Amino acid sequence: MEKVKDENSKTRILEAATALFAQKGFDGTSIREICKKANVNLCMISYYWGGKQELYQGIIENLIEKQIEYSKSFLDLNKNPKDMSVDECINLLITIADKFVDFFYTNISTDLIVLLLKEQQKPDFLAQSPVLDYMKAVVARILNKDVNDRLVIFKTLFMLSQVNSPRILPAFSLRQLGQKEFTKEDIKIIK
Questions:
Q1: Which CATH superfamily is domain 1-58 in?
Q2: Which of 126, 135, 166, 186 has the greatest CB tally within 10 Å of its CB?
Q3: Long-range contacts of range 161-164, CB-CB < 8 Å, 24 or more positions apart?
């Protein structure tokens, strides 16, 4: 029972910190505010992360961990795309894109989107996601290019931006639809 309580505390802290960092920024958010919003003792942040900077990084790491765990249901990150046929890679890329829509629209809050958009504006930001790296490798195999080729990088980013754009640009999607959330039918259309 104690483990469940601890995990609930950790989740509440991550959610509260994400919301506050998105609203007020890193410097404008205090550990005390996060703990108050999460309804946890101040020492819990030290227990899980050590401090505010580590908690901030923990939000990104938590997202990547969720993404990796989710991808295990449809992807073998140890299988090298170079060992697959182009047709296998095309089918796999379709599956990845389809599953990314599911993941993005069910696991990423508006607050996390705001936080990630702010984070990527920093000059030292580098997205290190094994799933993104794997997708790049699949695209590279399809195009018969190196994974660091500019065309591969742009094609991968363009595909991801197509998946993400309705959520990132609510004025061009939700507001035009006259609703606050995407319905299952909307997500089906996006796919």
A1: Homeodomain-like (1.10.10.60)
A2: 135
A3: 163/97, 163/100, 163/101, 163/104, 163/190, 164/104
